[in-house]
Amino acid sequence: MTRPASQAENLCHLIEQCGGIPIRFPTLEIVQVKPNPDLLGQAANSDWLIFTSTNAVDFAIRAFSGKMPALRKLKIAAVGAATASTLRQSGWPVDCVPHSEFSSEGLLAEPDLQTVAGMRCVIVRGVGGREKLAEGLRSRGAETFYLEVYRRQQPAANISDLRTDIALGRLDATTITSTEALQNLLAMLDDESIVLLKSILLVVMSERIGQAADDFGFKQIAVSAQPTDAAILETLTTLLNGENSGRSN
């Protein structure tokens, strides 16, 4: 389980309920970034406030000192169901969320974001990341900028236990939720462990991450139907119980 420590427990619990043994090995650490107050003011006065992750919601709330700005004309969009749920639990209404494809592409396909010419759209995210969403909105005439409220970094970790588990064949699957998490995992392990790891089932959250894993040389790659804990669990149980699905190289 390579998710940040604060985000892994629900899936770990689900795996334990099914008799599995989750090995916690975070490959990303999430830390707060304090945005310029002027950017917060621009965000509060935008037409659309677009959240790209649950982390974006959590750290934006901190940036706004625990309460959302007065809505006025502001509308809120979420890139996926989990992000939308986190917003609602925090008391922030959600006006737009993809119906099926939880990604930048899915959000851009929504009718509410088709006609945004002349509107100010603020994308709340971590430092760096994909440009697809901003590029799509700008191509439709929107004024778009970022409110970056956190950053991801590679955590310090002791790899000895994981290295032993890999060497002794105790690891049956790895889950990865982003390309950056996969890159960090490979950077944190030694060469011998990496060779063995690439032959073990790898469950990823999107075709894009799957393609990156393929480029890195992983041999068994499965793409979860949705980036949710339930879908990840279903993928794991289906494949580890012997049903052959997903992609192999």
Please characterize this protein's 3D structure:
39% of the residues lie in helices and 18% in strands. The protein is α/β, with parallel strands linked by helices and 249 residues long. The chain has two domains: 5-28 and 157-248, Rossmann fold (3-Layer(aba) Sandwich); 31-152, Rossmann fold, CATH 3.40.50. Strands 1-5-4-2-3 form a five-stranded mixed sheet. A four-stranded mixed sheet has the order 6-7-8-9, with helices on both faces. Strand 7, helix 10 (207-216) and strand 8 form a beta-alpha-beta unit. It is elongated. The two termini are 23 Å apart. The mean pLDDT is 91.
Question: Brief overview, please?
Answer:
By secondary structure, this protein is of the alpha/beta class.
Features:
single chain, 249 residues, alpha/beta, Rossmann fold, five-stranded mixed beta sheet, four-stranded mixed beta sheet, elongated
**Which term fits the overall shape?**
elongated
Mind summarizing the main beta sheet?
Answer: 5 strands, mixed
The beta-strand count equals: 9
Let me know the average pLDDT. Answer: 91
Q: Structural class, from helix and strand content?
A: alpha/beta
Question: What's the domain count?
Answer: 2
What name does CATH use for the topology of the largest domain?
A: Rossmann fold
Radius of gyration, in angstroms, nearest whole number? 19 Å
Helix-strand blueprint:
Blueprint: H1 9-17, E1 29-32, H2 37-44, E2 48-51, H3 54-63, E3 75-78, H4 81-89, H5 104-108, E4 120-126, H6 132-139, E5 143-153, H7 160-167, E6 173-176, H8 179-188, H9 191-197, E7 201-204, H10 207-216, E8 220-223, H11 229-240, E9 247-248
Helix pairs in contact: 1-11, 3-4
